Amino acid sequence: MILNKKKILFIGNLIISKYILETLIKNKRIKVCGVITTKNKFNFDYFDITNFAKKKQIPLHSWSKDNKKNYKWIKKIDPDWIFVVGWS
C-alpha cells in the first residue's frame, strides 16, 4: 500500500500528450490531479485531451490568457510535480 501518492499536474495538447497521460494514469504511485490543455490547433499533431480527461474524471482547466486565473487554478490543485508534454 502506498501512503503518499505524488500529485501530478499534466499540461499538453499534442498526440504524444495523450500517450504520456495514459501512462501516468496507469502508475499506481502517482495521481494525476489535474490537466491543463488548450484548443490551439497550430500543430499537425494537435490532440484535444479534454474528453479523455473528463472520462477519467480528472479536473480540467483550459489555458487562459489571464495568468492570474491559471495560477489560481494551479494553486488550488496543489501539485507535487508539473509535467508539460507536447505544449504548443
Structure description:
This protein has 88 residues and is an alpha/beta fold. 33% of the residues lie in helices and 24% in strands. It has helices spanning 15-26, 50-55, 67-77; strands at 6-11, 30-37, 60-62, 81-84. The protein has a four-stranded parallel sheet with strand order 3-2-1-4, with helices on both faces. Helix 2 (50-55) links the parallel strand 2 (30-37) and strand 3 (60-62). The chain is globular, with a radius of gyration of 13 Å. The relative contact order is 0.32.
Give the SSE order as H and E letters. Answer: EHEHEHE
Main sheet properties: 4 strands, parallel
Instruction: Compute the separation of the termini in Å.
Output: 38 Å
The class by helix and strand makeup works out as: alpha/beta
Shape: globular
Give the percentage of residues in beta strands: 15-25%
Poorly predicted ranges: none
Mean pLDDT comes to 90
Radius of gyration: 13 Å
Number of helices: 3
**What is the total tally of β strands?**
4
Strand order of the largest sheet: 3-2-1-4
Helix content: 25-40%
Task: Give a short summary of the structure.
The chain has 88 residues and is α/β, with parallel strands linked by helices. Helix content is 33%, strand content 24%.
Features:
88 residues, alpha/beta, four-stranded parallel beta sheet, 3 helices, 33% helix
Describe the secondary-structure layout.
Elements: E1 6-11, H1 15-26, E2 30-37, H2 50-55, E3 60-62, H3 67-77, E4 81-84
Parallel strand pairs: 1-2, 1-4, 2-3
